[in-house]
Amino acid sequence: MEFFKKLMNIKLVIKPPKTKKVLVYDSSNIQVFENLLNKKDYNIFFNRYEELNLFILKNAIFIFIKKIFKFKSSSLSSIYVYEFIKASNPKLVITLVDNKLSYFLLKKRFPKIKFFLIQNGNSLIDFKEILSQNKKELFIDKLMTFNKIYAKEFSKYVKGKKIIIGSIKNNFVKIKKYKTIKVLFVSQFRKFKKHKKEVYVTSQDKKKYTWEDFYQYEKKIIKLLAKFCINNDYKLSIAGFYENKHGAAEKNFYNEQLIHFPNLKWEVYNKIDIYSTYKLIDRSSLVVFIDSALGYETLMRNTKCVSFSVRKIKGRNFGWPKKLNQEGPFWINYFDETKCLKKLNHISQISQNHWKKLKNKYIKDLIFYNYKNTELSKIINKEIKK
After folding, report:
1. Greatest CA span in the chain, whole angstroms?
2. Average pLDDT, stretch 9-38?
3. Euclidean distance between CA atoms 286 and 288, whole angstroms
4. Residue-wise pLDDT tens digits, 220-271
5. I need a surface site. Which of 225, 257, 292, 339 has the fewest CB within 10 A?
6. Under a CB-based contact definition with an 8 Å cutoff, are residues 287 and 305 in contact?
């Protein structure tokens, strides 16, 4: 049923794509590219097939059938991608999809086109296992990363130049501090696809974790925060992952945990757009996260925060891929309620100047912020003017 719903929502295009300087691979973060590029300069390849180009599909089907008769193996979807890129004839292909192996292989197919990839989160934690098993050479002309630690980790698997830009979405939001929220928890809640017992994550050491395994610590942490907020007469705020139309399941998840705390005031803030959560962070005195990329973006925004990276999944320790102790002034990699509460009390009470010194002492190399992405804009403009 879900398949047919998606099928009915596909937009069909008859004309071939126009030739543009830039091809944006995937539309899921198109707001970023609208801010970064001139609209007349780029096309979009709809990687999730929200839009299907019938002209390209016709050519792809013809090539696919020819390959079958010649006993050559190739998927129709990959042929469609190749034909779309050929028809678009861009100077540059760029994406924020940093966990799709097929994108890393496109350079070999189109050696004269430049391929850029922008890190969009911390998916390398799980994706590195796929990269390490790959036997083909992977090349990206310019791979933009959060920091030099990630640049070094990507270099183990992908050839090409690495450039540190910080978080592209975070960079587009000016840092404005006005504290109206005492405690903000970064939700990583996602709806399970079929059932809670299905495999949700495979770790770097190939262990499999179900949805229930993964989210058991959200339940522990949110209850811990409830106690902390009640003891200090704070309201607990939750930065939701979903926008309003999909936020009901997320709110219900937290309601099931917090229903046992009748004296607690709490609220889930649903996303308004891809930038709204950064503004929420700037309003917060203290941000708490488990292992979300948004937590590290909080550090880039100089907001006080505490990380409880307690999932016991390889690669999800605080600061990965940087090697840090299991516990530090504002993080802990195992669940100990007494120690967790102690860190919350300590960090919430220190001054902003003390916080900056503490943060820079341990994780200065994890932090980079370039307002309006001026450095990235220069790199892209230089490329498309050649």
Report:
1. 72
2. 95
3. 7
4. 999 999 999 999 999 999 999 988 777 899 999 999 999 999 999 999 999 9
5. 339
6. yes
pLDDT of residue 5: 58
**Nearest CA to 39 among 30, 47, 48?**
30
Q: How far is it, in rounded angstroms, from Cα 156 to Cα 151?
A: 9
Domains of the chain (ranges; CATH) run 2-170+372-384 (3.40.50), 181-366 (3.40.50.2000)
pLDDT of residue 192: 75
Q: Which residues on neighbouring strands pair with residue 205, listed in sequence order?
A: none
